[in-house]
Write a structure and sequence with these properties.
mainly alpha, elongated
Length: 64
């Protein structure tokens, strides 16, 4: 089973994709694949941030 990337790994991969696009290092054939990968990574990061936010809210509620 493949290990899911951490938030920091995902952000690093996103930064690399953006750098490739900005430096025009991608040919048109690869651009679509990189955009799909970026979209997947963004969803993964958003999910992780949402889950962390919910956990923090729950912990803070328990402390009150």
């Amino acid at each position: 089973m493949k290990k899911e990337e951490t938030y920091n790994e995902s952000i690093g991969k996103l930064r690399a994709i953006v750098a490739e696009i900005e430096n025009e290092q991608l040919d048109v054939d690869m651009l679509s694949e990189k955009v799909k990968e970026a979209s997947r990574l963004i969803r993964l990061c958003k999910d992780k941030l949402y889950k962390a936010d919910e956990e923090v809210k729950k912990i803070l509620e328990e402390l009150q």
